[in-house]
Amino acid sequence: MSATLQAPDPGEIQLSAAEFADLAARVRRVSGIALGEGKRDLVHGRLRRRLRALRLPSFAAYIAVLDGPEGAEEEVRMINAITTNLTGFFREPHHFAHLAQQLLPALPRQGRRLRIWSAGCSSGEEPYSIAMTLCQAMPDLAQWDARILATDIDTDMVALGTAGRYAAERAASIPPALRQAHVRALDAETVEMAPSLKALVRFLPLNLLGAWPMRGRFDAVFCRNVVIYFDKPTQARLFDRFADILVPGGHLYVGHSETLHRVSDRFQHLGRTVHRLVR
After folding, report:
1. 152 exposed, middle or buried (CB, 10 Å; 0-12, 13-18, 19+)?
2. May I ask which residue range the UniProt record assigns to the signal sequence (predicted)?
3. Could you tell me the residue ranges of all domains in the chain?
4. What is the pLDDT of residues 159-194, one digit of tens each?
5. Counting CB atoms within 10 angstroms of each CB, which of 19, 27, 38, 102 has the fewest?
């Protein structure tokens, strides 16, 4: 009687220091995310699901897959597994208040063109919050050429954002009037963004450290709770690129724990993690 061989439970597989260093170097090269030794347990926990899916006996075998003919495809799945996707509707609400009360009223009426980029959009709650803010603050929005670009390195998150469907409990943070106007209940547990809202947002997979295919400049960039995973030189290069793609006087919104102090001198700090391009 023959026994069926099974791969060990990935939860029992150890991630050696050398294997962690190899994987961390790959993640940093592809995404810019810096994983210190303190993230070793996180990497083990996130990637053991990939070992289980691929029925691999060790992290050494996983690294061999990354070096093999299907490595590029698995690299995408690895980054999807590693990236943190903590988000929510109207998270850090002061940014949306500033957008509605300060940035939008000051837009030049000539041309009526508006472009906003949600860089590192995760599963889409941020760009949809931006879209709802535009609808509420701009009664004449239909007369504008307004678009929101939403990008993320995690292709799974981009797919979720494109679908625009969320657990009903996640929509509880949307102000009631906006929820009534722009959110549709599919059933007791699931809601969907209204088609008119989806039409304002275009989701695309994008690595912030790679080439940016966009043409034209943006009035505002939301890049919140993203650069905390990058080292200072990488942050400086990214902020320079944001400055180059913003219109004169354009705005940059960053996360509550992020700062441009001693990283970029191209923006004026307006308070509460809001910055305006000055050069």
Report:
1. buried
2. none
3. 10-82, 93-277
4. 999 999 999 999 999 999 999 999 999 999 999 999
5. 38
